Amino acid sequence: MKERAMAGGSPDADKATEEQPEAETTQVVPAPPPAANDVTRQLVTITAAAPSSPAPTTPDPAPETAPPAKPKEAAPAEPTPDEAVPEPTHDDTAPDEPTPADPTKPEPTSTEPTPADLTGPKPTNPEPTATDPTQPKPTEPTTEPEPATPEPSPAEPTPVPAVPARPTQPELTPTPPEPTSTAPTEPKPTEPTPTSPDHAVTSPAPADPRPAQASAEPPPPLELLAQLTNTPPPPDSPARTVARKVKIWSPIAVLLGLVLLTVQLVRPLPEPTFTLAENASSFTLPGDKLSIPWPEKGQGAVTVMGSGSIGTFGAEKPVPTASVAKIMTAYVILREHPLKKDEKGPRIAVDAQAVSEGSSENESRIEGLELGQTFTQQDMLKMLMIPSGNNIGRLLARWDTGSKDEAAFVRKMNDAAKALGMKNTTYTDPSGLDSKTVSTAVDQLKLAEAVMKSDAFRAIVAMPNADIPGVGRINNNNDRLLVAGLSVRGIKTGSNTPAGGTLSWAAYKTVDGKDRLILGTMMDQHAPPPDPNGANSLLLVQDNSKKVIEAVREALTSAPAVAKGQVVGHVDDGLGGRTPVVATQDLKAVGVPGQKLTLTFHGTATSLPRTAQAGTVIGHLTIGTGPGAPRVPVALRSELTEPSVTEKLTRLG
Q1: How far is Cα 224 from Cα 218, in angstroms, rounded to an integer?
Q2: How many CA atoms lie within 13 A of 446 on its CB side?
Q3: Using an 8 Å Cβ cutoff, are 410 and 428 in contact?
Q4: Exposure check for the chain: N or C terminus, fewer CB within 10 A?
Q5: SS3 content of the chain, % helix, strand, coil (to 5)
Q6: DSSP 316-338
Q7: Which pLDDT tens digit goes with each residue over 596-615?
Q8: pLDDT given for residue 650 in this prediction
Q9: Nearest-CA neighbor of 447 among 321, 351, 307, 339?
Q10: Which has more confidence, 205 or 412?
């Protein structure tokens, strides 16, 4: 009994064992679960092959539970048979509680391998139960156990609660329960000594109680490939890192390069453009700049058709136009009802209002009209522009709109002025008698350029007088300039008290075998009083205009601006290719000395060709502005070709 108590058994357990009737037992070895490793397979094989021992007639003490052995780094020295096994101490006062192990003293070894040696520590404080007679009893060794080398007790492991899970090591034999104890049982690692080569048992290493740590991040692709092929990855080095990056990024770079090359080749090419050479963008006529003899008061402007403005004077502010407003009336009538040169046009009947206004005083008018009398459109325009009949202007307005008043026609006049860019002009009546009809010299010059394009109009305003059937001869109010030998061919005079004297004129000069049209306007010319209805102011504006006409006509000349074969620009294909363009003829500028003219390129088509042979005409080069500006054809000096493949691939824009 004492030996059993020292071995960790309980007297009550021994008594219960003795009271059990003897029964023939059969050793049953449960089938082991799948072996986790080679050591487990060896243990299962050895246990299954061991012979069964007959049950002793006397009750044996319960097998002592031994804690798992501490893993060793080196094999201990073989114990000698002469060494005695130290007996464990036992406290008789507390037989039910195991004595805590002293870490400084060696632990006794068990005389035989127990199931605890194979399965590790068991849960503490189980309920005491009677020994099951059907359970097989452990086999006793046939030889004396050899004492194991004393080892220091390992650190006290943390008890792991029993969890119903798949055991890491298979149990070879059932483990009897241990007696209940109030103090925790500390497992003591012991080394089982094999009794014989046939019954040698090696205790497996205890399982690591710590749970396996999951990988924080997936392994790199090469390491994962090595795991799948059971080939360990080669050690990292700077060279291998660079090689790995090259292998990964090289196909991507090649693919991107192919895509870029394809896009560069197939995307649309930029449209070719023409750029003027710096030395061919403008030209200034040689000589001292012309000094125009402008009057001290009023405002005026002069231009050479095809060359541009020569000069202006005075403040550009709206002033009354007087009968110069009839130029817009004729412009709208001819726009709505065009006439060719010497064409008569439709007949227009005289209404009662035109007959009544023919007897009005203090305004220019056509007298002697009869109700129902008809005149051609051409004759109506002559009576409007030559003697400046106010009643004819109002009659044409009513005829054009079919209305009894002139408001609708006045709206057309203002719309036309806006379309021509006459920003400082307002019309309130078709005759100009109303002082609220105002304009500027610059605006009236824009109107003169537009209306003088009409052959029918130019023919009428150039007449000093005309014979009208049913009316008789009518005389031009501008006859003083028309017959002055200055080649004046119009346009229209105007005079009244609010406006003073106004005049838009047209004169010609032949330069290089062509007639050059000179246009001018002078307004707000007031003679000293008395000036009944602006009669004296009309003479004043004619005299002042004559001085300007004489000076401009005398100075008007021409000079070579571009020589034949001169490079005037180039065609740019948008990718760096430049094809020179040359003038095919001499180009002369027409103007006055000191006048700066602008050169402009006008293409023969809406867009330049992408390919063309040398000598292909691609447009015209014009010097000056407006109708009649001199111009010459320009052509390619060399062949025009599309951009090369290299230029397409290397373009950035």
Answers
A1: 8
A2: 14
A3: yes
A4: C
A5: 30, 20, 55
A6: ---EE-GGGGHHHHHHHHHHHS-
A7: 999 999 998 888 888 889 99
A8: 73
A9: 321
A10: 412
Residue 571 to residues 92, 148, 577, 585, 632, Cα–Cα distance (Å) = 120, 106, 8, 19, 17
C-alpha neighbours within 13 Å on the C-beta side of residue 110 = 28
User: Has residue 553 got a pLDDT over 90?
Assistant: yes
Question: pLDDT by residue (tens digit) across 339-371?
Answer: 999 999 999 999 999 999 998 888 899 999 999
Q: Residue 230 has what pLDDT?
A: 66
Angle, helices 326-336/377-385, rounded to nearest 10 degrees: 170
pTM > 0.70: no
Place of tokens 């056509």: 366
Nearby residues of 259 by Cβ (< 8 Å), 6 or more positions away: none
Q: What are the beta bridge partners of residue 284? A: 596
Taking the C-alpha atoms of residue 369 and residue 357, their distance in angstroms, rounded to an integer, is: 10
Q: Kindly report which listed range (169-178, 259-268, 319-328, 616-625) carries the lowest average pLDDT score.
A: 169-178
Q: Are 552 and 595 contacting, i.e. CB atoms less than 8 angstroms apart?
A: no
Average pLDDT of the segment spanning 269-296: 90
Tokens of 97: 């509680």
Alpha helix positions (H), 454-534? 455-461, 479-482
Strand-pairing partners, residue 134, are: none
Q: Return mean pLDDT, the chain.
A: 76
Q: Are 415 and 336 in contact (CB under 8 A)?
A: no
**What is the rounded CA–CA span in Å between residue 35 and residue 445?**
114
Q: Is it the case that residue 291 has pLDDT exceeding 70? A: yes
Residues 6+ apart with CB under 8 A from 348: 374, 375, 376, 377, 380, 395, 396, 399
* Beta carbons within 10 angstroms of residue 255's beta carbon: 10
**Among residues of the chain, what percentage have pLDDT more than 90?**
49
* pLDDT at residue 34 greater than cutoff 60: no
Distance CA(145)–CA(140), nearest Å, equals 11
Cα–Cα distance measured from residue 371 to residue 392, given in angstroms and rounded to the nearest whole number? 13
Residues 409, 397 contacting (CB under 8 angstroms) = yes
